[in-house]
Amino acid sequence: MATNIENKRDSLKKNIFLIISLLLAAFVVYTSATSPLSPMLQRSLILLAMVYISVLAKPMKGKYGPLIDAVIAIIATITLGYIIFSYKDLLYRSSFAPVTFEVILGGLLILVFLELTRRCIGWPLVIIAAVCILYAVFGRYLPPAIAHKGYPLSRVITSQYITNAGIFGTMVGTLSTTIAPFVFFGSVLSVVGVGELMVDTAMVVSRNSKGGPAKMAVIASGLFGMVSGSSTSNVVTTGCTTIPLMKDTGYDPDFAGAVEAAASTGGQFMPPIMGAAAFLMSYVTGISYITIAIAAIIPAIFYFVSIFIEVDLEARRLDLKPLATKLDKGHVSSILKRCYMFIPFVVLVILLMRNWSCAKSAIIASGLSLALACINPKTRISWKLIKEISLNFAKSMVSVSIACATAGIVIGSLNLTGSTLRLTYAFVALADGRLFILMLCVAALCIILGMGLPTPAAYSVAASFAAPALTQVGVSVLASHMFVLYYASLSSITPPVALAAYAAAGLSGGNPMKTGWKAWRLALTGFIVPFMFVYGPALLIGEASAMATISSAISGLIGIFILSMSTIGYFKGKLGVVERILLLIPAGCLIHSGTLTDIIGLVTGAILIGQHLLRQKKNTKVMEA
Asked: Which listed residue, 26, 77, 525, 576, has the most CB atoms within 10 A of its CB?
C-alpha cells in the first residue's frame, strides 16, 4: 500500500515537472521570438517557474521534506505572485519607502532563494549573500575602512524585493532574456544528437594521430562546452565517451580526467557562444555580444592549442598508438551524412554579426536545428522529442537561475551601501598603482569565489568591483571583464576545490586531487593568457591594429608551444629539470607582448631547442651503434 502511494506521488511529481518544463520552454520561445514582457513581469515569471522546478529537481530529504517543499512553493507563489500582479503599480511608484507586508513578503522570498541556493549550489553563495545583507544592516558598527551609515533591515529587504536593483536586477534580467534562449538552444542540440556528432567528428579528426582520444576530448569538449555553459555538465556529457577511450589508449586515469576537465572548462570562453557568463558580460559592460565573442577568439585558440600540444607531447612521451584501427569504416560517411546539423551554428553567428538580438538569434537557430533534425527519422519532431527538450532545458536552467537570483542579492546589497566603489578603491590602494599586483589580487579573488560558485555567479560578484578596479588603473573595460571571466571559469579546475576535475575523476576512477592538479597544469596557459591580453591588448581582436594582433598572436603561439614543452617535460626526448626551467625564459618573453622580448625569446628558445635536438640526435646515433 505504502509503495503504491509513493509510486503515485512520484508519478504526480514527474507530470507536474513536465508541465512546468513545457510551459517554461514555451514562454521563453515566445518572448524571445516576439519581444520580452515588462522587466519585472518577465523576471518574476521566470523565477516562479524556476522555484517550482528547483523544488521538484532538488527535493528536501527527510520526514518533513515534502511539507517544507510545499511551503516553499506556496511562499514563492504568494511573493512572486504579488510582483506579477502589481508590477505596473511598482513601475510608477514614486517612493519605495518600506511597507510592512512588502517587507514580510520580501524577507520570505530572500529566505526561499537562500534555501534553494543551498540545495542547488551549496553553502558558499548562501554565506556570501547572508554576509552582504548583514553588512548592509550593521555597517555602521564596523571599522572605519569598511563602515557605512547602515540601513534598516526593512529598507534592505525592500530594495531587494520591489526594485530591479536586487533579486530582479541585471543578473536575472540577462537570465530571462538572453541566457535562457541559449540554454534552450543547447538543449535542442543535445537532444537532436549534435553533441554526439561533435564527439564523432572530433574522433575522426584525431584518429590518425598519437593520443587521438585525448585530442578528441579537447576538440569535442571545446565545441560542446561553449553551448552547455557549464564545465561540470560538459565533463559528464562528453567525458562518458572520451575518458574511457583515453584510458584504453594508454593514458593513466588521472591524466585522462584532467584532459577532459581542462578542455570542458575552456568551453566557457570559447566563441561564438562562450557559455552563460559572456552574456552577463555583455549586459554589464554594454559591449555587444558579438564584439566580445570576436575579441575572445585568439585567447581561446591559445588555450586549446596549448592543451592539444600537451596531450600530443604526452602521447609521444608514452609512445601511444593512433586510434585509427578502432574506428568503423562507415564512421566518416556517417558524419558526412549528418554534417548539415552544423548549419545552425553558422546561421547563429551570421545573425549575431548582423546585430540581431541574442534571444531571437538563439531561437531561430533552435528552430533551424529542429527542422534539420527531421531529415533523420530518429530525431524527427515528435511529442517525445519535445518533452525531452523541455525537461533537458528545465534541468539545465536550475543552477544558473538560482545563482543569478542570489548573486542579485549580493550585488544589490553592495550597491545599496556603496561598497562596490569602496571595494574598488581598496583593491587599487592595496596594489599601490602596481598593475601586476592588482591583477594577482583580482585573479585570487575570482578563483576563491569560483571554487564554490558556478561561473556566472562568480563572474557577477567579482565583476561588480574587481573589474572596475582594473579599469581604474587604465585597463580597458573589455580586457578587465574578460580577465575576470577567465579566472571565474578556471576556478573549476583549481585545487583544492576543483569541481570539474572531481567530476572527471569520478568518471575516470582516478584520484580527485591528482586529477585537479594535472588539470591545472594542462590549463596553465589559461592562467597566463589574461595577463597577456591586459599587457598586450592586441590579442583581443578589435583592441589594436590588425598587424599588431597578427604579430602578437604568432609570437604568443610560439611561446605557448615552448611552455607546453616545459609543462610536459618532453619534445623529441625527455627534458631534464634544468631544461624545463630554462625553457620558461623564452616562453615568458614570447608570451609577453613586445619587440625586444620577442627577439630575446626567439633567440634563447632557438638555442635551447637546438641543443635539445642535437643531444637527441647524438643519443640516437649512440643507440644505433
From this structure: 525
- Cβ atoms of 211 and 315 within 8 Å: the answer is yes
Other beta carbons less than 10 A from residue 30's beta carbon = 12
Q: Give the chain's largest Cα–Cα span.
A: 92
Residues in CB range of 202: below 8 A, 6 or more apart:
215, 216, 217, 218, 219, 220, 223
Rounded to whole angstroms, the Cα distance separating 352 from 289 reads 8
Q: Which residue has the higher pLDDT, 462 or 301?
A: 301
Q: How many residues does this entry show for the chain?
A: 625
Q: Is the distance from CB of 205 to CB of 250 less than 8 angstroms?
A: no
Using the predicted structure, report yes or no on whether residue 387 has a pLDDT greater than 80: yes
Q: Is the dihedral of CA 129, 130, 132, 136 positive or negative?
A: positive
Q: Are 258 and 504 in contact (CB under 8 A)?
A: yes
Q: Which residues pair with 210 in a beta bridge?
A: 322
How many whole angstroms separate alpha carbon 198 and alpha carbon 342? 9
Asked if residue 206 lies in contact with residue 221, where contact means CB atoms within 8 angstroms, the answer is no
User: Which residue is listed with cell 529542429?
Assistant: 370
pLDDT tops 70 at residue 625: no
Q: Tell me the CA distances in angstroms from 509 to 230, 258, 262, 526, one per residue in order.
A: 21, 12, 17, 26
User: 35: helix, coil or strand?
Assistant: coil
Give the global pTM. Answer: 0.79
**Which one, of 317, 364, 359, lies nearest residue 345 by Cα?**
364
Residue 55 φ/ψ region, left for φ over 0, alpha for ψ in the -120 to 50 degree band, beta for the rest: alpha
User: What's the CA gap between 472 and 523, in Å, rounded?
Assistant: 29
Q: Please answer whether residues 551 and 538 qualify as being in contact, where contact means their C-beta atoms are separated by less than 8 angstroms.
A: yes
SS3 500: helix
Q: Which of 179, 166, 180, 155 is nearest to 40 (CA)?
A: 166
d(CA 351, CA 349): 5
In terms of Cα–Cα distance, which of 105, 166, 96 is closest to 417? Answer: 166
For the chain, percent of residues with pLDDT exceeding 70: 90
Q: What is the pLDDT of residues 504-523, one digit of tens each?
A: 887 788 888 888 888 898 88
List beta partners, residue 322.
210
Sign of CA dihedral 465, 406, 444, 144: positive
Instruction: Please answer whether residues 522 and 262 qualify as being in contact, where contact means their C-beta atoms are separated by less than 8 angstroms.
Output: yes
> Who's near 19: CB < 8 A, 6+ residues apart?
none
Question: Over 90: is that where the pLDDT of 41 sits?
Answer: yes
Local structure of 495: helix, strand or coil: coil
pLDDT at 28 over 90: yes
Identify whether the C-beta of residue 223 lies closer than 8 Å to the C-beta of residue 304.
no
Own/partner long-range contacts of 324-332 (Cβ < 8 Å, ≥24 apart): 324/207, 324/208, 324/212, 327/203, 327/204, 327/207, 331/200, 331/203, 331/204, 332/204
For the beta carbon of residue 91, count every other beta carbon within 10 angstroms.
12
Percentage helix, strand, coil, to 5, in the chain? 80, 0, 20
Per mean pLDDT, which range of 140-149, 227-236, 579-588 is the poorest? 227-236
Q: What is the pLDDT of residues 468-514, one digit of tens each?
A: 888 888 889 999 999 998 988 888 888 766 778 877 887 788 888 88
Q: How far apart are CA 252 and CA 261, in angstroms?
A: 14
